[in-house]
Design goal:
mainly beta; 22-stranded antiparallel barrel; 46 strands; globular
Length: 822
């Protein structure tokens, strides 16, 4: 489908006001106890009925917003009766397993999707996450196609939400907060995201206005649940970028279950597509497990563990970059010596127990420990030549170097080490009273950080040392006059920080689902409190406390059109984590305050049908007013804070997403986001923040060939306008407000499904060993767009000019991928 047609459909959806039906859809695959599809199963509700086909597949429309009992019957298998209450236009998948021993009964009283709609949560299907292509495929790859979520770095799993930065996003796995390494400064060093998509069962995402039960961050919540397997299973994935393996295991008595995954990744294929020629030997690997044990009907235990080792060895050789204009083209040539050796070892373990004290009272106890050992060592010597290129059309030397206008060199050195240990203990309570629900929690966190930073940079131009830009040194007018001042490194950061932080936090929230006449209403109100104190060998901060009240209100009118209106907001605080306590000189400022933000979000969900298929238009407008802002600079993905809380800021915008079955049986979406975020530091006036991503367009599309449904296409498109940036990290933001070029990227995947659970038995015996088997070709950066992430600044001592040479991300890359499930 062309882009023009997509936009036409989008406008048609927005303008249509009479397409709605108070029905829901339920579909799935019916299996027997041997996991074989069952044909000719009668699926019925009153006078509505259908039968499963030879692949066990069924599809039935049922009334919405009322309790119905669906009955599955077969001539040789026992009956299944299941009750549902689904919201209008909800599309639910239910895959029953029929037995020849006993009848089965069950009930699905509340629609999970409906609950997430009224709380403003976006749910992402795990299968979509595993299939959509991307240079760094996974959950974050999908998030970057959502409105309000931005990233200009395909090698990074980090993302910014509605004007926030990478440190303002909460990530939970099984209700346990997870962390990432501290010292990473570029996307190509990151390796693997914490979340293993092979283990995922459910993914929820909120871009703002979230409830009090979620922690103390300013921008977003990513809430992930790992699955509890019910039978043995295994899967494998292999490609030129690495591979993964997972195993599901269940005990005979069903009390024990475990899902374990192993991953390995090598980014050489991507990094070697960049302009810098390198010897690059990365090694990113981890093992992760989620073990569940049911000791009694009222008591469950679970363990989540992860061991990750990322080794990054980088030896740049040469680089050539052409830049400038048609009238004045230029060429930068760089020759390198030296290497970089980085290492990030992380260990994570969490134990969680759930005790159902009564039908309406549940307690959860959670304990976790995170330990990271990180080192960043490099000595890289670069000698550069800045040349003007012959641009005379018709010249025999057209495109060649005309003459060299500047030469120089720089030496970068670092010996950075960090050892961090974070321990959490938490208790949560859940109380249900009819339509009301009370939730509360108390948490203690101990953070112990041992950090040493030694890094400096020496620059010379034409043999003359370049002085630091921020010191009041004697004027350097070389080579015309001798320089008599001291010779100092261009940049020099040295610090040793041994600190501990004790945190106490808690929350209390109340929820109610009720009606006003024929209108459904949902209320949620709560408050969070957080107290912390920073301690160190030579410093001690004062104890600080914040209170964050929050609320949500949603209504679902009893209209012919299926709409939900939401309003949410409150006061949000982000007490400083260790990186936010360090200033530009890497010295810890123990009394750094929590950043404060007032959120206001107004949203609407409109569900309707087009082409007899379900669609949804989700729109939100938001405004955030921030005080005690901790300003920062971004260099690739490294953030350096001022740690002085001397600014105020705001963020405002509009997010729109249209999702549905553009192609029958597949979900796709189009998203659009507008954002404006500015800050005012020391009353110098408002300027764009480093994450001021004005416009964003995303497209996620799935398709298959009608005549060959096993041949599938997956498309991932992102367009972002340019961010403020490209200036040196030490530069005054008020003097350098240039923007990087727009970010444009398309990743596409073509897959041939050789076998899946709906195909039944195949003639080839070896194929029958697999539940799913597919092979495909992925093309990253399909149109070979040049996207710049930062600038390298080159100085010419004679002309006193500085030139910004863009550092481009990856070019077009081809990847072959194989996936299989047993």
């Amino acid at each position: 489908m062309s882009a023009i047609k997509f936009f036409s459909v989008f406008i048609l959806f927005v303008l249509s006001l009479n397409l709605s039906a108070q029905t829901a859809r339920i579909k799935g695959v019916i299996l027997d106890e041997n996991s074989e599809p069952v044909e000719n199963v009668n699926v019925s509700y009153l006078n509505m009925a259908t039968q499963s086909n030879k692949n066990g597949f069924y599809d039935l429309k049922i009334p919405a917003n009322q309790k119905i009992t669906l009955v599955f019957t077969h001539v040789s298998l026992k009956k299944i009766s299941v009750s549902f209450i689904l919201s209008a236009n909800e599309n639910k998948e239910f895959n029953p397993v029929m037995s020849d021993q006993q009848e089965q009964m069950g009930e699905v009283i509340v629609s999970a999707n409906n609950k997430k709609v009224i709380t403003g949560v976006t749910t992402i299907e795990p299968e979509m996450i595993r299939k959509i292509p991307g240079a760094n495929a996974g959950i974050e790859n999908i998030l970057k196609t959502l409105p309000g979520v931005n990233s200009n770095n395909e090698l990074s799993t980090q993302y910014a939400v509605r004007g926030g930065n990478y440190d303002e996003n909460l990530v939970y796995v099984n209700e346990i907060e997870v962390y990432r390494p501290f010292l990473i400064r570029s996307g190509q060093q990151e390796g693997l995201s914490f979340t293993n998509t092979d283990l995922v069962q459910n993914v929820d995402f909120s871009a703002g206005g979230f409830q009090a039960k979620f922690g103390d961050k300013l921008s977003s919540v990513l809430d992930i649940t790992y699955r509890k397997p019910t039978s043995f299973g295994a899967g494998i994935e292999a490609s030129f970028l690495g591979g993964s393996l997972y195993v599901d295991a269940v005990s005979k008595d069903k009390k024990w279950s475990a899902v374990t995954g192993v991953r390995y990744r090598n980014n050489s294929l991507l990094v070697k597509s960049q302009e810098t020629q390198t010897n690059f030997t990365p090694s990113f690997a981890d093992i992760q497990t989620n073990i569940n044990y049911t000791s009694s009907p009222n008591w469950q235990w679970s363990f989540l563990g992860n061991i990750s080792q990322n080794k990054y060895q980088y030896q740049p050789l040469t680089r050539q970059t052409r830049f400038g204009t048609l009238d004045n083209p230029m060429l930068l040539t760089v020759f390198y010596e030296g290497q970089e050796k980085d290492k990030y070892d992380t260990y994570f373990a969490a134990l969680k127990t759930t005790f159902n004290a009564a039908d309406n009272f549940t307690l959860k106890f959670i304990g976790s420990i995170f330990h990271t050992l990180e080192q960043e060592y490099f000595d890289i010597f670069a000698q550069y030549r800045l040349s003007e290129v012959d641009s005379s059309i018709g010249s025999q030397n057209f495109g060649d170097v005309a003459y060299t206008s500047g030469i120089g060199s720089q030496l970068n050195h670092a010996r950075n080490d960090l050892d961090a240990l974070i321990v959490n203990t938490e208790i949560k309570g859940f109380h249900d009273w009819k339509k009301s629900k009370l939730e509360w929690g108390i948490k203690y966190t101990r953070e112990s950080i041992r950090d040493r930073i030694i890094e400096w940079e020496v620059i010379d131009s034409a043999g003359f040392s370049v002085n630091p830009p921020i010191l009041n040194l004697p004027k350097n007018n070389q080579p015309y006059n001798p320089y008599v001042g001291p010779l100092l490194p261009y940049q020099n950061v040295r610090a040793t920080n041994f600190n501990s932080i004790n945190r106490f936090s808690g929350y209390f929230q109340w929820s109610l689902k009720s009606t006003i006449g024929s209108t459904e209403v949902f209320y949620n109100a709560g408050v969070r409190a957080h107290n912390w104190e920073v301690q160190g060998e030579t410093l001690e901060g004062k104890s600080q406390t914040t209170f964050s009240p929050r609320a949500q209100f949603a209504v679902k009118p009893n209209w012919e059109k299926d709409m939900v209106f939401r309003i949410s907001g409150g006061l949000y605080h982000q007490p400083p984590f260790y990186r936010e306590l360090r200033n530009a000189e890497a010295v810890v400022q123990p009394d750094t305050k929590a950043q404060q933000s007032v959120h206001f979000v107004l949203g609407n969900d409109y569900s309707f049908k087009m082409w007899t298929r379900p669609f949804k238009l989700v729109s939100e407008i938001y405004y955030k007013s921030l005080t005690d802002v901790n300003t920062y600079t971004i260099d690739n993905v490294r953030i350096r804070y001022a740690a002085n809380n001397n600014a105020k800021a705001y963020a405002q915008g509009l997010d729109v997403r249209l999702n549905g079955e553009f192609v029958p049986g597949t979900e796709s979406w189009i998203s659009f986001g507008y954002l404006k975020t500015e800050e005012n530091s020391n009353e110098r006036g408002y300027i764009g923040r480093p994450t001021d991503q004005r416009l964003k367009f995303g497209l996620l599309f799935q398709d298959y060939m009608p005549n060959i449904p096993s041949l599938k296409l997956y498309l991932n498109l992102v367009y972002n306008t340019g961010l403020p940036g490209g200036s040196p990290s030490y530069a005054d933001s008020y003097l350098y407000q240039n923007r990087l070029n727009d970010y444009r990227r398309v990743d596409v995947g073509f897959f041939k499904v050789l076998i899946d659970s709906k195909m039944g038995k195949r003639k080839s015996d070896w194929l029958n060993n697999f539940k799913e088997l597919a092979v495909g070709l992925e093309i990253f950066n399909l149109f070979n767009n040049q996207n710049a992430i930062t600038n390298t600044w080159v100085r010419d001592v004679y002309s006193k000019n500085q030139y910004a040479i863009p550092n481009y991300m990856t070019t077009r890359v081809f990847n072959v991928k194989l996936t299989a499930k047993l």
